[in-house]
Amino acid sequence: MTTFDILTVKCPHCGTLMTHYELMSYTVHDLESWSDGKVDAGIPEMKRAGICAGCRKEFWIEDAKLPRDFEPHAGEELETVKDVYDLDWIFDDDREVKAIIYYYNLLKDGFADTDEREYYLRSHLLWSVNDLVRYRPAWWRARNFGMLTRMLNSRRKGKRKFEVFDLIHTENLERLIFLLIKSGDVDLLYLAELYREAGNLDKAAEILEKVEEKGKTWRMIRKKIRKKDRIAFKLRSA
């Protein structure tokens, strides 16, 4: 069962009051998880940042929450906090590229004022770059030559876009690695994966050997390192 807590937030920029739905609990029915940490669970993301429905500026939810007993004026209907999926370009053909630029600009403009918030934004930037090649169609599922051609063209197009953002991608991964190590709460398996995606395969292999539980994910990362493959991969679906 999925449950939400309804909160009222006030935009720190213009004072607009909005409703925010905070996820309290959920039951997972469909789950896809990826080596870069992205999880598609079929539920709304637990947002830490939002976009004002009034001035359209970004803000951090925790900076905008009002007391739980706050009640708007009687009869006042509030809009909900907006997010990246409410932006004008979300249905454009190049929305994946625009998402990358969006998160990159937030970081460049200093929107993240703590290490934790920077890690949050950089994780979304990582996932956005990887989205260019994440959902590549499986060519062996093609039912005819025409479908195979379209699938292969789609894979090539995504790979070319991915390569365009190689510098941003690598720099972002290096900063994520720094922040992860700095936090002191290091998941060695995930750290090895970040090094692999950053192209530092020797370091990835070195970290991987320090992992005690050498299960399926460990073996998959090792295989990718040996193949010199930097692309994020699906871990499981349920």
Dominant shape: globular
Mean pLDDT: 88
DSSP summary: helix tally? 8
Order of the strands making up the biggest sheet: 4-3-7
User: How much helical structure, as a percent, in the residues?
Assistant: 40-55%
Order of helices and strands: EEEEEEHHHHHHHHE
> Structural class, please?
alpha+beta
Radius of gyration: 20 Å
Question: What's the number of extended β-strand segments?
Answer: 7
Beta-strand portion reads: 5-15%
Enumerate the spans where pLDDT stays under 50 for 5 or more consecutive residues: none
Rounded to the nearest angstrom, the distance between the terminal CA atoms is 17 Å
Main β-sheet: number of strands, strand sense, barrel status?
3 strands, antiparallel
Topology:
Elements: E1 3-10, E2 17-25, E3 32-34, E4 39-40, E5 49-51, E6 58-60, H1 61-64, H2 95-108, H3 115-134, H4 145-164, H5 166-183, H6 188-198, H7 201-208, H8 216-226, E7 234-237
Antiparallel strand pairs: 1-2, 3-4, 3-7, 5-6
Helix pairs in contact: 2-3, 3-4, 3-5, 5-6, 6-7, 6-8, 7-8
Structure description:
Helices cover 45% and strands 13% of the residues. The protein has helices at residues 61-64, 95-108, 115-134, 145-164, 166-183, 188-198, 201-208, 216-226; strands at 3-10, 17-25, 32-34, 39-40, 49-51, 58-60, 234-237.
Brief digest:
By secondary structure, the chain is an alpha+beta fold. It is 45% helix and 13% strand. It starts with a strand and ends with a strand.
Core attributes:
about 240 residues, alpha+beta, 3-stranded antiparallel beta sheet, two-stranded antiparallel ribbon, about 45% helix, about 15% strand
